Amino acid sequence: MMTGASAILSGGELIGNWFNDNSFDCSVDAQPSVCFEGWQTGWANDHQDATWPYVHWIWPSTSWSFGADTLQNDFNQPKFSGYSRGNPNWGLGIFGDMPEAAGPLGGPFACTSLPEAACGYQTYNVT
Length: 127
Known about the structure:
Blueprint: E1 6-10, E2 13-18, E3 34-41, E4 43-44, E5 47-48, E6 54-66, E7 80-84, E8 107-111
Antiparallel strand pairs: 1-2, 3-6, 4-5, 6-7, 6-8
């Protein structure tokens, strides 16, 4: 999803991806943009902040590509590189739970809780 790669399916299950490089092909659509959100622990000196224990990061429009992987006798850790662009239509986010409308380039803000964790893709209709 992050790279616009084509899915490889077997029996309806995702088993891999075909690399996608549309950067030099003008006959295909541009790679899709995706929102990227992340949370981290908020710290005050040497401990987690009691008032604002988390930081919520938002990049409203990003594009990603695969980086150079190292094949080894260990777990593979895919590497991605990417960049962000402005998205003035982000507003209060997909859940409408932000304290104010996000700037077009996104950024961090302190928060008191983490979202509920869920496995798999999360899709939302945003207008």
